[in-house]
Amino acid sequence: MGDQLIRAISKDGFVKASAVSTRELTERARQIHTLLPVATAALGRTLAAASMMGNALKVEGGSVTVQIKGGGPLGTILAVSDDLGNVRGYVQDPHVDLPLRPDGKLDVGTAVGMGGTITVIKDLRMKDPYVGSVALLGGEIAEDVAQYFVESEQIPTACGLGVLVERDQSVRAAGGYLIQLLPGAPEDVIAKVEGGILAAGPVTGLLDGEGDPESMLRAVMGDFEIEVLERSPIEYRCYCSRDRMERALISLGADELSGMLKEQGGVEMTCQFCDQVQRFSAAELQTLIDSIGARKK
Questions:
Q1: How many domains does the structure of the chain reveal?
Q2: 257 shares a domain with 213
Q3: Any idea what the CATH number is for the domain that residue 87 is in?
Q4: Residues with Cβ < 8 Å from 294, sequence gap 6 or more?
Q5: DSSP assignment of 23-78
Q6: What is the domain range of residue 168?
Q7: CA angle 236, 109, 173 (to 5 degrees)
Q8: Are residues 151 and 20 in the same domain?
Q9: How high is the mean pLDDT in each 10-residue block of the chain (297 residues)?
Q10: End-to-end CA distance of the chain, in Å?
């Protein structure tokens, strides 16, 4: 089974939810960025959260960017989702290696850090994007995402995220869920959601095996009847291209490009998300400089 995203609603109309299985796209990110296990776990959790948030936009061409700056050794973690839930991302230092926690789990909280912020940028294809930022709670990411929704969007939210890494450092299971209360939900609904989460257990245990997000969501929301509204495939998808990199170079201006031409004779540009390298020769740089000059005439 490939990576999937589902959206659902409780039949009583009080709860909406999303769930994703993201083993393949997290493994793809691991291979691209040569991530060590704690970086795999941190980036994988962020990719899963961004996927669900991006899919929830329902704005064609829209996107969601999740940026975590916790002050820990991993540095900045960035994940970007399109409106379908396809994601890409990176972590500033992919080779951080920390001892396991006393319980034998990866120490994501220490790697991320606890003294910074989680920022969400929503591009709704309007003049200005929506930007919300809140302080990190603990750097484990799931509770930080939930806190973002509570503080920045005033939506009571429960979030579960998980990445299980094999001994050979490959990804065995990955994914997560978002459960949100809709307006008018009575107090006992909160208790039912919390009880279901506690009874279901960790995300990685629910996804280990076939990795079916619907089965995971039904386990977590065992006290509710739910209706699945959407099921769609998702993947690690980068939108970089040579044309985009050309436009990025042109945006630097003729003086900057002339300096590159003089000092380097050409330039290499590497995409942060997929590590694809584009090389521009001296002649190609000169063509870009000439095009800038032509536009000014």
A1: 2
A2: no
A3: 3.55.30.10
A4: none
A5: HHHHHHHHHHHT--HHHHHHHHHHHHHHHHHHHTT--TT-EEEEEEE-SSTT--EE
A6: 4-233
A7: 40
A8: yes
A9: 93 96 98 97 98 93 96 97 97 96 94 95 90 94 96 95 96 97 90 94 90 94 95 94 86 88 86 88 88 72
A10: 56
